[in-house]
Design a protein that fits this description.
alpha+beta, Cytochrome-c3 Hydrogenase, chain B, three-stranded antiparallel β-sheet
């Protein structure tokens, strides 16, 4: 038996530790931990509610708007301030561009792509690539899969294409966000628009763009080449949905109506079956456990939510962040009784189940498996899907002044980040924050005994001369953001 410590893992966001055991050519054990504590929930406690989006927005600099957006949606519910359709339009466009498209290009090619480059792949893998012709060579220009591998490494042509594209997407988003990461244009119920022609400029760029098409089909070649190589952990998925409909009003009692109309709707899938598309039910089923973590237990304070639904002791509205050690700061997140994967593959699966066939830039996506290459391909396919979404958005007239609605003392903002389901639970007390709890997608995927560990344990080591590579490919396929997961506050 070989014990391997892969700490720290590079080409991810934040500080992540991974220890694996290998026996008879398979990974037999895996432990992934977050070694950094940031404690934003403690930092936010007692602060003015108005400060929450600004503070929470600092959680991450990679998915640089998601925590601002989700915090603002929580405050919109808490304060009864609703955005107009024009506000929703500008938020959706900027969020699609930067947090999803920009992030996904960075992760697929700047972080992950190097793992599939000729500088990193085992010799037998590269030799197989030399014998594998490309199906989509007329689109991307590469003749063999090995030609793609040659250009994935740092400084090579595909890497440079991705670097240019992610820069362009981020710059376009700042026409609306004004700053990225941590946008400064959003506020509860509204948005400051300085460039009224921003959407026309964005659509003009996307109409002329050829890089997204090229990179989609480069990834499609890798999808075919690595088919069946990595462990499939099955179709267990969760998504809160992505991009609001113009009917969004942040009212908790009407949550299922407005959330159901998101461009990608919410969904909880167990063993391939859609359990529910009801966002409120999904959120009520979230549980935070302390087993295998550095967190201590807490006392139950609230029995019911705003509509009289039962709240579990381990629900985020009841949780207090307490520390008992300094070992693993990623909490254990369970969805009632199982631990679903979240991210692009979850969104695409739910979209396919709830809305039908899903096609972008001439490529039709169908679910195959929940493994390394499928999670990777889903990431780039989503970029293509959102390109088409943005090309088809229509300008909405009107103002961006907030609409008055029904305030609450208990609220939740829940909207997918690029990495998956992201939610902020808030208890208000006057104009102060009594409790603020955050459950990020990396909390879910990297939970003790969660999807990442499940994906590594039982995976065959594809080359015994590179016993680290497969485990690292698994980790990066989940696009970890450990800064988000551990949520700067010194214990």
């Amino acid at each position: 038996m070989v014990e391997l410590d892969l700490t720290p893992i590079s080409r991810i966001e934040g500080h992540l530790a991974l220890k694996v055991k290998i026996e008879n050519g398979f990974y037999t054990d895996a432990k992934v931990t977050g070694e950094m504590f940031r404690g934003f929930e403690l930092l936010l406690k007692g602060k003015n509610l108005s400060l929450a989006p600004n503070i929470a927005g600092k959680i991450c600099g990679v998915c640089g708007a998601t925590h601002t957006l989700v915090s603002i949606e929580a405050l919109e519910m808490l304060q009864g301030l609703y955005p107009t359709p024009r506000t929703v339009l500008f938020r959706n466009v900027a969020y699609a561009l930067a947090d999803i498209m920009y992030n996904n290009v960075v992760v697929t090619f700047i972080f992950q792509g190097i793992d599939f480059s000729s500088h990193q792949v085992p010799k037998n893998e590269y030799e197989r690539g030399k014998e594998t012709p490309c199906e989509y060579k007329d689109i991307h220009g590469f003749q063999k899969v090995s030609d793609i591998m040659d250009e994935l490494y740092f400084g090579k042509s595909i890497f440079k294409d991705a670097l240019k594209l992610q820069t362009d997407l981020r710059n376009l988003a700042t026409l609306i966000w004004l700053r990225y990461p941590q946008p400064i244009s959003m506020k509860p119920g509204s948005i400051n628009i300085r460039d009224q022609e921003a959407i026309n400029k964005i659509k003009k760029y996307l109409k002329e763009d050829k890089l997204i098409d090229k990179l989609l089909y480069v990834t499609a070649e890798l999808r075919e080449f690595y088919k069946g190589v990595y462990k499939d952990i099955g179709p267990n998925f969760v998504t809160y949905g992505l991009l609001e409909d113009y009917s969004y009003n942040a009212d908790y009692e009407e949550m299922n109506k407005w959330a159901d109309k998101r461009f990608i709707p919410p969904g909880l899938v167990k063993n391939g079956e859609l359990i529910t598309g009801n966002l409120r039910d999904i959120l009520l089923g979230v549980r935070i456990f302390t087993e295998g973590t550095s967190y201590d237990e807490w006392e139950k304070e609230y029995d019911k939510d705003l509509m009289g639904n039962q709240l579990d002791t381990h629900h985020p509205w009841n949780r207090e962040t307490k520390l008992k050690s300094r070992e693993n700061f990623i909490p254990k997140i369970v969805q009632i009784d199982f631990m679903p994967t979240t991210g692009d593959i979850a969104r695409l699966y739910v979209y396919r189940v709830r809305k039908g066939k899903i096609r972008a830039l001439g490529y039709e996506w169908e679910y195959r498996s929940n493994d390394v290459i499928e999670r990777t391909f889903a990431r780039m396919f989503t970029v293509a899907l959102l390109k088409e979404y943005l090309l088809n958005v229509e300008e909405v007239k009107g103002d961006t002044n907030p609409l008055k609605g029904k305030p609450y003392w208990m609220a939740v903002g829940a909207h997918d980040a690029p990495r998956g389901a992201n939610a902020h639970w808030v208890i208000g007390e006057g104009d102060k924050i009594k409790r603020y709890q955050i459950v990020t997608p990396t909390d879910r995927n990297f939970s003790p005994e969660g999807p990442v560990e499940q994906s590594i344990i039982g995976q065959k080591v594809t080359d015994l001369n590179r016993i680290d590579l497969d485990a690292l490919r698994v980790v990066r396929s989940f696009d970890p953001c450990s800064a988000c997961a551990v949520h700067v506050f010194k214990p």
